[in-house]
Amino acid sequence: MTTNKARKALTNKTTVSSIVLKIRNFFMAIWAFIKKNRWVQILIIVLTTLFMVVMAFGVSYAFIHRNDPVQIGVSFSKKYSEELGNDWRANYRALLEDINFDKLRLMSYWDENEPKRYEYNFSDLDWQMDEAELNNAKISLSVGLRQPRWPECHYPDWARDLETDEMQTMLLVYIEQVVLRYRNHPALESYQVENEVANKHFGDCPAYDRDFYAQEIDLIKSLDSENLVITNASNQSGFPIRSQVGDKVGFSVYRRAHFEALGRQVTWSFWYVPSWWHGMRAMAVEILHDADTFIHELQAEPWGPKPTQELTIEEQYRTMNPDKFIEITNYVQSTGMKEYYLWGGEWWYWLKNNHGNPDMWNVVKAKVESTRF
User: Fold this and answer.
1) How far is Cα 113 from Cα 122, in angstroms, rounded to an integer?
2) β-bridge pairing 264-269 and 256-261
3) Which of 306, 305, 307, 351 is nearest to 325 (CA)?
4) Does the pLDDT of residue 262 top 60, yes or no?
5) Tens-digit pLDDT profile for residues 169-201
6) Which among 99, 97, 193 is positioned nearest to 140, based on CA atoms?
7) How far is 363 from 339, CA to CA, in rounded Å?
8) pTM for the model
9) Distance between CA atoms of 62 and 47, rounded to whole angstroms?
């Protein structure tokens, strides 16, 4: 028995040694190839230098903005709050009065506010704006067809089958109604024109039309020269080089996402994206466009294979929980962008009120309170 164990141990040791030798020979072969080829050496030097420059950009942005105050806002969707089964007004008031958010992103969904052609009903959005004013909060108002929450593009039924030109004309008419209604509202601070407008991988939306996007921005600026106009980029990548840029540029940042890849459902972690990458993108915007940057959407809710309300709490916590919330807020602050709008206010309220689980609500509240001092 002892002899068999000794033989097995020797065999294992020989196997490991063989693997180590093969790995060593592999890298030695690569090194020999590099030494023989001058063009490979030059390419490595160029790529290494480029990498160092890009990283330096990101690190320098964080250094320049190291003393900026942390400003935390939250996105709120009446539509999604109702989808979860919340009392949406109570949900909204709790964000304002309990957590005490003083910056919110609200939605002006086209399908909700113009359910019939030329028949407008802004009563619910009016209420949200007025409640924000009562609580001394400022609103960044999402406008356009593409706005947060699935299916991303919120067509009214009557507009869905219109030809593209007519649909765009009617959308501009609707945007004009929104701007004229709220441009003088004391709570309004900015407009966010479309949401991740160039994101072609997510949502039930038409193809990105750069010229029409510029028309939307120009229309808003012609109607309101006082409030800021914001353009939003997509998740881990994207540089607003060719598209029109507003007074500020927002990035969305997610650390864990769920999607289908190679026919399989996959929960993907973006742990490999260093914080300086986003800092580099922000620095590029400042240099190229002389515009401020911020995080318009920071993940603070789950992203699973099914709608959140169909997941168990354990499944929800795999992609977002109090510890992951602290991790992602620390991560985003290290980018240098200290202003960020959290994504998930409807979910925290749903957990607290429908499931007796206030953990997320409390950790967010503590984080917001910490920025007041």
Assistant:
1) 5
2) antiparallel
3) 351
4) no
5) 999 999 999 999 999 999 999 999 999 888 877
6) 193
7) 18
8) 0.87
9) 23
**Using CA atoms, how far apart are residues 7 and 19, in angstroms rounded to an integer?**
18
Q: How far from the centroid of its chain's Cα atoms is residue 190's Cα?
A: 18
| Contact indicator for 153, 205 with CB cutoff of 8 Å | yes
114-121 own/partner pairs: CB under 8 Å, 24+ apart: 114/156, 114/174, 114/177, 115/156, 115/157, 116/156, 116/158, 117/156, 117/158, 117/159, 117/170, 120/177
Token code pair at residue 244: 């029109």
| DSSP per residue, 80-102 | HHHHTT--HHHHHHHHHHTS---
Tell me which residue of 185, 202, 198 sits closest to 249, measured CA to CA: 198
Q: CATH assignment of 71-370?
A: 3.20.20.80
Judge if the upstream peptide bond of residue 151 is cis by omega within 30 degrees of 0. Answer: yes
311: exposed, middle or buried (C-beta count within 10 Å: 0-12, 13-18, 19+)? middle
- pLDDT 10s digits, 303-336: 988 899 999 999 999 999 999 999 999 999 999 9
